[in-house]
């Protein structure tokens, strides 16, 4: 066996590196290492609805409206055909700032290209990432992503309930039009799954991973009242309030913005995928796609599992009943997979659901499972920290139920005030504590 000293190894490495420029002189690489991309908006794509509800486009433009979190100087867009069985042809794609309705800010329109081309064919089961474009995106602004389909296209990869109004044009390519002639409105996001902005190297993103409660069910349309939206408003306000701070930790945090990517899907479960793909692949299945692949992700908030408990005997066979141990095993997988990528994981306690109108969704035995899961989340110390959503919105006089002032009326989903209460229950110090420790240990940050 050779015993190479460290000094000899350095000499060998230097000699090898001296040859590298002769191999790379023909083409200069793009300085991508000087970029920091952060997800400012995201959604979880699911499969198509039934044929009677399937979105159909034919020589039309869709203008998809989204609300950003963090701002940035450049933008890129992620599209997906992952639930499609045939190639998806996009004849034009644009991004712009939105004024209102289907009207964009004049001068803000940017043509999106894909590997240099203004058109793209996305293979079945695949995503595609656009080339970056220069566009100054303010925090908490509305963006319009316009896609023109030169032929027939079916909304097979879609986030079914967006709680946001988007628009479908009359026939024609209106991707770059300031005011698009609208044939109809829709409350879905077909094909669009993430928008990233280029920002400071201090910036990062938080992924909210959950079901309809995270997705924003029962909140006011077009108001951006999901709990992840309220969380970003709190983070943004905190950053502004720290801008004049002099303490070392606060000074660092004043320069650091956190985007929030909402990966909630209504009806989603942690452990099992329903035969109907409208509620998306199970959390364990979509985790790599929706969490690990998100741009700039450093934090994960998990609020997923109430449908695993409630669905059995209500929407799915009673044989799919879960025990607390089943969900705990699933959470441990999420924690391990996130930690392997250096992501900090916060566990959210499952919120109350007694009184739901679906027969069999709530039972005393299922409530016992929820309580056992929450006890483990609170006391196991396996998550990096706990966010007690249950405590934030439960009725103190009847802890199995949502407090009436926070109840949307279905006794499962919080209303807008409940969403605000959930966001308020997240200690912002969680992000500052972990961020400061990480920033102090990271060279160049």
Radius of gyration: 23 Å
Query: What's the number of extended β-strand segments?
Result: 23
Strand content: 25-35%
Report how far the terminal alpha carbons are from each other: 41 Å
User: What form results from the Cα inertia axes?
Assistant: globular
Search tags:
445 residues; alpha+beta; 7-stranded antiparallel beta sheet; 5-stranded antiparallel beta sheet; globular; disordered N terminus
Could you characterize the architecture of this molecule?
This protein is of the alpha+beta class. It contains 12 helices and 23 strands. Strands 2, 5, 6, 7, 11, 13 and 14 form a 7-stranded antiparallel sheet that branches. Strands 1, 3, 9, 10 and 16 form a 5-stranded antiparallel sheet that branches. Strand 5 and strand 6 form a beta hairpin. The longest helix has 16 residues, at about 325-340. The protein starts with 5 loop residues before the first helix and ends with a helix.
